[in-house]
Amino acid sequence: MASATPIHRLAPSDVAMLRQLKAVFAEAFADVDTYRVAPPGDAYCRRVLGKPDVIVLAAVKDTEVVGGLVAYLLDKLERERSEIYLYDLAVAEPHRRQGIATALIRRLQAVADEVGAWVVFVQADHGDDPAIALYTKLGIREDVLHFDLKP
Fold first, then answer.
1. In the beta sheet, which residues pair with residue 120?
2. What global pTM score does this model have?
3. Residue ranges of domains in the chain, CATH in brackets
4. What does the pLDDT look like over 80-133, one tens digit per residue?
5. Integer CA distances (angstroms), 90 to 56, 59, 113, 117, in order
6. C-alpha distances in angstroms, 87 versus 4, 57, 121?
7. CA distance 23 to 33
């Protein structure tokens, strides 16, 4: 199903929309500590939103952010190329199954094309069947292990 929901790339002036998106993430990921506790200040948000290698897309219905994603452009050294890592993607529960996540990813793919990235990649957790089904529909699956290495 195609989404008619407008997708906006957030700019430094869109801090209020970023805060709405973080609320969507907090609820969707059941992770209030990460997304709502000790939020960064407006100046920090404006600075990060102004970086060309930070891509934040928001799906907006009327004035409400109903979904979005955060991705990062990574320059590579094995070849002269870059790739985009889709880090967070969520759609608020009442707005799921309307094509919004697919529209967000398609828009990210368009951004990747605009900046000359050779691929967009994303990870999914075992057991997150909706995410796995979405990413399988849109791309090529690789089974890998992910490790967090603390400093």
1. 84
2. 0.86
3. 7-138 (3.40.630.30)
4. 999 999 999 999 999 999 999 999 999 999 999 999 999 998 876 766 666 666
5. 12, 10, 22, 23
6. 24, 12, 9
7. 11
